[in-house]
Write a structure and sequence with these properties.
197 residues, 4 strands, alpha+beta
Length: 197
């Protein structure tokens, strides 16, 4: 081998060695990049999974909250319905009371709402038909300054009466009395029906 061949051989060997080193370095760098990409990919997968879990939990929490709200709303509707039915039942118990008790209640209402002066008490036909003989005398005794008569003509009221002073009507029907006192009655019924609420 000549000197030139030897130099060429050495250059080729050095080139081959350098190429192998570069190739080895490139492979190593590629493996590092692949590992880095793999690690970043795994980290991204973990982040996506964590975000998905968080979103799923948010959805579960909102669904649970919505369900609890709906349950509370349904319970409130139920309670209001039950309270309304209780108040209606109380009104009906006054309307359907035995005659003596019914007219005692009317007298109590009259005593509360009557005032001095000329007036007229209007009842429905059912109440006129069963009116106690002494009711007018009891009215006059209960409110001596009131000069109220009982109209012989039936009026269109369910129960209770209208008290008329000139052009002023005082609605003393049970429905009107209960409607005026509804909030107080509702609160009382609610406390009785749902004492811990």
């Amino acid at each position: 081998m000549t000197g030139l061949d030897s130099i060429i051989s050495q250059i080729a060997g050095d080139g081959q060695k350098e190429a192998e080193e570069i190739l080895s370095e490139a492979k190593k760098k590629a493996e590092e990049i692949a590992e880095e990409a793999k690690a970043k990919g795994a980290e991204q997968v973990r982040a996506v999974l964590k975000d998905g879990e968080r979103r799923a939990q948010d959805i579960r929490d909102r669904a649970k909250s919505a369900a609890e709200l709906e349950q509370r709303n349904q319970m409130l509707v139920f309670k209001q319905q039950l309270i309304g039915e209780t108040v209606d039942a109380a009104r009906k118990s006054f309307e359907e009371a035995p005659d003596a008790q019914y007219f005692d209640t009317l007298l109590a209402l009259y005593t509360r709402f009557a005032r001095e002066g000329q007036g007229e008490l209007h009842l429905n036909q059912r109440d006129l038909d069963r009116l106690p003989d002494d009711f007018l005398a009891r009215m006059r005794k209960a409110v001596p300054g009131a000069q109220v008569t009982i109209s012989p003509k039936a009026h269109d009221v369910e129960s209770g009466f209208l008290l008329v002073y000139g052009g002023v009507d005082i609605n003393c029907t049970f429905r009107a009395i209960f409607e005026d006192a509804y909030e107080e009655l509702r609160d009382t019924a609610g406390k009785l029906l749902f004492p811990t609420a």
